[in-house]
From TrEMBL:
Keywords annotated in UniProt: Lyase
Protein name as annotated: tyrosine ammonia-lyase
Gene3D superfamilies recorded: Fumarase/aspartase (Central domain), Fumarase/aspartase (N-terminal domain)
Highest taxon of source: Bacteria
GO biological process: secondary metabolite biosynthetic process
Amino acid sequence: MAEHDLIEAPNVSASENTRANATAVTIGGRKLTIEEVVAIARHRAPVALSADPAWRARIQRGADFLRRHLASGATVYGVNTGYGDACVVDVPMELVEALPLQLTRYHGCGMGQYLDDAQTLAVIAARLNSLAYGFSGVRPVLLERLADLINHRVLPRIPSEGSVGASGDLTPLSYVAAALAGERDVMFEGALRNVREVWTELGHAPLTLAPKEGLALMNGTAVMTGLACLAFARADHLTRLTARLTALSTVALDGRAAHFDATLFEVKPHAGQAEAAAWIRDDLTGRDDTPGHRLQDRYSIRCAPHVIGVARDALSWVRRDVENELNSANDNPLIDPDNERVLHGGNFYGGHIAFAMDSLKVAVANLADLMDRQLALLVDVNFNNGLPRNLSGAAPARAAINHGFKAVQISSSAWTAEALKNTMPASVFSRSTEAHNQDKVSMGTIAARDCLRVLELTEQVAAAHTLATVQAARLRLKIDSATPVPAPLQAFIDSVTAHSPFVDEDRALESDLRALTARIAACDLLNDYRGGSHA
């Protein structure tokens, strides 16, 4: 069991007491998991730097070696040279100390929406873990101040736009570096504050960035990687929810459980497909396999494990690539404290995250399309096997003026279309920048942002589908009270109904949809979901 598994999963408005009682995630000398980043970001788990003296000594050796190397007259990119195409410009020794802060200042040109609190915390955690790898030549105090940002929730205002994903997430990460140096504004205790004042309240002076520390903070993949960790968790939850809704749709449509027989998936052995089928099969335990209205249900029901399975299998390698990036030294140059070498390379390139996010958003958009197709079956009297038109729950005397879930299905279709439109891969839109020094870039941060947008839209579709499917199941029980509803599905129906009552008379459902979407985005809708089991 990982450390984060001991943490309760409060929502993002959890109290300070909850955070104080959470088990700290250790940074340094070990690999970090996606779930631990999510625990830091969403569940407010604190971080603790490793207490291993050998790890701490190694961090210090890297900073000490870099100082000696510079004193010997060596040239190190971005330490006593200009940046990027200006690497041919020598920086006089009397200006070397000023160079890191200059880097943070001229990159203060981000635009777009600011990252939210969870995204900001995930970014800081990813940057801290990379620097803690011990190949960046930074001082231990820098890692301590990054940990302070997390533990005291001193959150830099990070604009989401302005990174091409190589040479790392320079512009957005400049806001983290600037905050450590006492510049720009941060969110602290619910208010926008000057960061220098916040550091004073916390008993610290702003850091004077040492040579390379500005570059080490900014020249890496932390923004795309932090966002990718959050995207992974939300996509994982959506696959489980889509399986649950498929099972409930099968009940509502008077469909067949036989479509999810284990033998079908043993003879086509994609692991994710079999996993999804098992979830649906478990949810339908006890349901009669005799044909209902059709010998074979339509594809959006019968082939649901095959669609969900693609996303499940994609998540397995997405995890591999995201966690590899998360647990990597991804700035430039790298400082090898053991062999005392400076290594100039391109580890800031975010290609693996870009491809992972481009791929994941396609898999997630397919979940939106699947759920939208299931919803379309449920509302249509030509396909819903006897349910009322548009799932209206109105009494016969008022049926003519009630339209149930008609508009919800239209909105779901719009959200699905937008999700599908946003699956255009960002990684193929590399742009040459910075005087053709950065002439092939990853676009990883744009890919991660796109993936989060697709997730947001798909969660809205899932909310619409959840409300409609619960309504449909309750209508099926009105038609035939003997309809078998397995226990997991009945518990799900009851949970959803507690927050969104049965629609007997038309009402505005926006508030219901927003509340349910928030629960889905927080991975909090399935009461039996605890990061591993489905049922």
